Automatic annotation (TrEMBL):
Keyword Zinc found: no
Name of one Pfam family that matches: LIFR_D4
Localization per Swiss-Prot or TrEMBL: Membrane
Name assigned to this protein: Oncostatin M receptor
Organism ancestry: Eukaryota, Metazoa, Chordata, Craniata, Vertebrata
PANTHER family (alphabetical): CYTOKINE RECEPTOR, INTERLEUKIN-21 RECEPTOR
Main localization, broad class: membrane
Keyword vocabulary terms for this entry: Glycoprotein, Membrane, Receptor, Signal, Transmembrane, Transmembrane helix
Membrane topology (UniProt): Single-pass type I membrane protein
Residue ranges constituting the Fibronectin type-III domain according to the UniProt record: 330-423
Protein source organism: Rousettus aegyptiacus (Egyptian fruit bat)
Extent of the signal sequence: 1-27
InterPro entries given in the database record: FN3_dom (IPR003961), FN3_sf (IPR036116), Ig-like_fold (IPR013783), LIF-R-like_Ig-like (IPR048497), LIFR_D2 (IPR040817)
Gene Ontology molecular function: cytokine receptor activity
GO terms under cellular component: external side of plasma membrane
Length: 482
């Protein structure tokens, strides 16, 4: 009985120790706290960059965590931003996060702190927030220099219609500083005795050289200012399409819209990404780009066109079967043969695209104020017989081709001018005579009538012979229309 009691006590102690160990292991992530918080500043982008690491993770351990971040301005109690950042944390990993400030960072002192929470299913409830890190202070004003007045931000680029905050910083408290936007005096909000901020809402595009803002110390006449660069809003590309003329190269084209380029900043750039192949190409032109086709079995393409400038990105996508986007090249070697008064034979050549590729070709005949169209399907070279033409008439004929099975676009036209030959009379002449005697002379007039091929009305031809004793015989040829 005593032996049983001792064994039972030993078992209970072992079980308690195991539970205590498990509890310590499972609860350990709840105590993980961010450490070594460092904050740096990027004045050009007006961003605070944070980095820290989490102490306490074992080697090769990974844990999903949430970090709460607070940012204060001027004093720690004035919290202006609070948010969360989620990520998977690895052992000995340095974490990075950044924040963009609407107010130029040079205009006020900022403070940052971080705390963490284990957000992993392997961690049991309750999951508690760690303690906060100490406030990390960021003060840019100490490094500005000794000038009496500063204006920020320097050379900022924004889109038309954006909201912008500008501030001035004076080395000593003053109440005699005036500020002007495009020559018009404006009034701001005083953040502290040395700093005033100006909120510009819905800024307009004024000129490509930028919008002028300056402040002046009235007593000393010191002037400091900035140029605010306002760009047009980057538009989404319109009418994006791709086509091939030879199954070797795709040409993609689009309407880029308004050019957002400024003298200090380049225009928008464009790039193509094809999802099936995973390939990407940076385009050299604003409104078109070529894509080399490989000799594989890929028939379907899914393109994304990405447009981007210094402040925005836009994208559009299309998907298509290659055989449905064929735009044939212009036919060539158009020849008119066996031209007669009423017929002609027309031949032309097409640029080969592939075996058994069928073209639909359209022929137009222009003449006598009319246009007649004919369609014909071919695989290699084309031929068409033009009939029922008018004799001795000027004509113009032209041809263009498209893919017959999946019509996409016609090629460009190519044509030739030609004239039909003169036709022989279709029946015998209508001939008669007229004899007149006047004062001893006799006049004999021969008439005949014919419809010439170049005239729409019959023409009467008359040969008049006049016999007079004193003059002999005189001839006169006349023409009249009936």
């Amino acid at each position: 009985m005593a032996l049983f009691a001792v064994s039972q006590a030993t078992f209970l102690l072992a079980l308690l120790s195991l539970r205590t160990y498990q509890s310590e292991v499972l609860s350990e992530p709840l105590l993980l706290t961010p450490e070594s918080l460092k904050v740096s500043i990027n004045s050009t982008q007006q961003r605070l960059h944070l980095q820290w690491h989490v102490h306490g993770l074992t080697s090769h351990q990974e844990l999903k965590m949430v970090f709460q971040i607070e940012i204060s301005r001027i004093k720690t109690s004035n919290v202006i931003w609070a948010g969360k950042y989620s990520t998977v944390v690895k052992w000995d990993q340095v974490l990075h996060w950044s924040w963009e400030s609407e107010l130029p960072l040079e205009c006020a002192t900022h403070f940052v702190r971080v705390r963490s929470l284990a957000d992993d299913a392997r961690v049991p409830e309750p999951r508690l927030w760690s303690r906060w890190t100490s406030w990390e202070e960021v003060d840019v004003q100490n490094s500005l220099g000794h000038d009496p007045l500063f204006v920020f931000p320097q050379d900022k680029l924004v889109e038309e219609g954006s909201n912008v905050t500008i501030c001035y910083v004076s080395r000593s408290p003053r109440n005699d500083i005036s500020c002007y936007l495009e020559g018009v005096k404006i009034y701001g909000e005083q953040l502290d005795p040395n700093v005033s901020a100006f909120n510009l809402n819905n800024v307009p595009f004024i000129r490509k050289r930028g919008t002028n803002f300056f402040c002046k110390v009235n007593e000393s006449g010191v002037i400091k200012g900035i140029v605010l660069f306002v760009t047009k809003v980057l538009e989404e590309p319109k009418d994006f399409s791709c086509e091939t003329r030879d199954f070797k190269t795709l040409k993609c084209a689009w309407d880029p819209g308004t050019d957002t380029g400024l003298p200090k900043y380049s225009s928008q750039s464009y790039s193509l990404f094809e999802s099936f192949s995973g390939k990407k190409k940076v385009c050299e032109q604003r409104n078109w780009c070529t894509w080399q086709l490989t000799q594989d079995s890929q028939e379907t393409y899914n393109f994304t066109l990405l447009a981007e400038n210094h402040v925005r990105r836009r994208s559009v996508s299309i998907s298509f079967n290659l055989t449905h986007r064929v735009h044939p090249m212009t036919p060539f070697n158009v020849v008119l043969e066996n031209i007669s008064a009423t017929n002609a034979s027309m031949t032309w050549k097409v640029h080969s695209i592939g075996n058994h590729f069928t073209f639909l070709c359209q022929i137009e005949l222009h003449g006598e104020g009319k246009v007649i169209q004919h369609n014909v399907s071919i695989e290699t070279n084309g031929q068409y017989f033009l009939s029922e033409l008018e004799p001795l008439t000027e004509y113009m004929t032209r041809v263009r081709c498209a893919a017959a099975n999946h019509f996409w676009k016609w090629s460009e036209w190519i044509g030739q001018n030609f004239s039909t030959l003169e036709a022989a009379p279709s029946k015998a002449l209508d001939v008669w005579r007229n004899v007149k005697s006047v004062l001893g002379s006799r006049t004999v007039t021969l008439f005949w009538r014919v419809r010439c091929s170049y005239s729409k009305r019959p023409i009467c031809l008359a040969l008049r012979l006049t016999v007079r004793p004193d003059l002999g015989v005189a001839f006169q040829l006349g023409v009249s229309y009936t």
